[in-house]
Amino acid sequence: MSGDVETTLRGPEAYKVARAAMELMERHQVWPTALNFELWTHYVADPEGPLARELGRLLSEGEALTETVCEELAAAYLAKVRLNDQIRDAGDQLSKELSAVSTAIREAQKSNQSYGQTLAGASKGLTTTTDANSFKAMVDELSAATRRVQRENKSLEKRLDDSTTEVNRLREHLEQVRRDATTDGLTNLANRKAFDDELDRACAEADTAGTILTLAVLDIDHFKGFNDTWGHQTGDQVIRYVASVIGRIGAPPRFAARYGGEEFAMIFPNEDAALVESCLEEIRHEVASRTLKRRSTNEDLGTVTISAGLAQRQVGEPALAAMERADSALYTSKRTGRNRVTNGERIVAAA
Q1: 265 with 330, same domain?
Q2: Quick one: how far is CA 317 from the chain centroid?
């Protein structure tokens, strides 16, 4: 899972993963470009993932990992590359639309300029022409020029309408791309990047308004053992279940995200520590109240519990410092028995 990989690559295991990736690239004679390094770190960090399985298949079949093959793998399995490709394609399409509109406008300007010259000539002719046939010919010329301009203006209007429709479609597509880039694929909650961005925004807003902001970090208890016992697919089922509870209670104006692996984070704008503690207890109770079953076999998996920690951010306090206090409160919950919520403000008060 991409979220797990990002978490691994931001922790102490990253150095071991990086060394293993370099060794594998050298063994398979793959140049250590930035793109290849990203591919192989994902391969090492998530050996059960779709990228690792496809890369393993290619290796087992003896296929040469050329630059083209690696680029295709990156485009198919690395979210950042897919996102960049989609943005580039949308940008190219938008450039084509703008170019077509620009051309249509220039043609319309030429046509209107020509029509203006025709009108000017007719105006001059009307003051000097007395012959009926010449007058009729002049009127016919004006009528034909008017009809031509009307046709061209209608064509321009249609082109502009079509372009407006296409630009709106591209805008909706880019908005979907943006949502995909900030959404965790497994849980449909916000991902780590979206959380970091929202945290910065929420902190700036709280500082401007002089309001409080409370942060929380939640983690599924004993998840590694559960994963080892039942497998990754069942583990994913558990993560989705916990995420559904967190997402419902963490609906806007609150903000909930999958922070990485089995860990989640939440932002509570303008809510104090006591209220947030109550919300986290509600999540904890609901998660623990349900007996889970394995979908494929209907086996009873028992119950899952979560631990949580929270910290109330002070006005002007760096976001990272507040998150570290929430994380510290989470580990207090872990050390003191799990399946509990720790209010970091009480720890501070006691100290």
Answers
A1: yes
A2: 27
Instruction: Tell me if 308 is assigned to some domain.
Output: yes
Q: What is the pLDDT of residues 86-137, one digit of tens each?
A: 555 565 566 666 666 666 666 666 666 666 666 666 665 656 655 666 666 7
- Domain-ending residue, one of 77, 97, 117: 77
Which CATH number does the domain housing residue 169 bear?
Answer: 1.20.58
Contacts with 134 (C-beta within 8 Å, 6 or more apart), sequence order: 125
303 and 266, same structural domain?
A: yes
Assign 3-state DSSP to the chain and report helix, strand, coil percentages, each to 5: 70, 10, 20
333, 206: one domain: yes
> CA of 21: how far to CAs of 27, 41, 66, 261, 323, in Å?
10, 5, 17, 21, 31
Residues 342 and 228 in one domain: yes
Residue with tokens 């949502």: 179
Query: Catalytic site residues?
Result: 262
Q: Is residue 186 part of a domain?
A: no
Structurally, how many domains does the chain consist of? 3
Query: 139-148, 192-201, 256-265, 314-323: lowest mean pLDDT where?
Result: 139-148
Give the model confidence (pLDDT) of 191-232 as tens digits. 888 899 999 999 999 999 999 999 999 999 998 888 788 877
Per-residue confidence band for 81, with pLDDT thresholds at 50, 70 and 90: very low
Residue 333 forms part of a structural domain: yes
Same domain, 41 and 163: no
Query: Angle at Cα 232 formed by Cα 74 and Cα 241, nearest 5°?
Result: 105
